[in-house]
Amino acid sequence: MSGDPSLGGYLQEAASWDAERALQAQRYARVAWRVAVGACLCVLALTGAFIALLPLKRIEPYLIRVDSRTGVVDVVPPYRGGTDFGRTVARYFLMRYISVCERFDYAMAETDYEQCGAFNSNGLNQALYAHWARGNPHSPLNVHRDGSTVSVRIEAVSFLGRTAGGARLAQVRFERIERQADGTRKDSGQWIATLTYRFTAAPASAAARRWNPLGFEVTALELEREVLGRHSGARSGRARS
What we know:
The structure is a single chain. The protein is an alpha+beta fold. A hairpin with a 5-residue loop joins β4 and β5. The longest helix has 49 residues.
């Protein structure tokens, strides 16, 4: 059979055909890899271009708040992860301080008195003690012994930088609502609290640390009425330093 010339030509042709198929498969594989690599490069380029354009398409939402009573307009600051942590915490403590120290309900009076004292400096605590003393006719214990209550609604907190002495300065606008024992409204008014504050070591007592674990301390407080009404008038003991 090996001497048959026709068989030899057939075998040679078959071998060349197989070799050509193998070369063609290799060419197809190289083309496929080049297409795949080109597609990946295009995707990476498009992704990079999209990321580069993101800052140009960013939308900054903000909320404007208008007070329904006074018409005062302020912008509510949004919370961001990169916001200064000290100011965020200070805002909470300032709102908490005014809410606790300016409200009155006989059922919560003792707890509120202790909690307010946990935020005060020594000088403010002396003024707070004198203001709450039974011998003071303007003491909340005497003014509201008829069962009336006082509630507080915080409206805005503004940071005013630092004083000449370096203390942090802030203002809190709030509404103070007084109700009679039967729940009917007796008096209400807009107030502005101007405070200087700082962060010190946590209070030594465990009870104070329960309310004030970060050592927030108000060193001076001044209160003034913003909107004068028929029940307006200075309240004694409202300015402390």
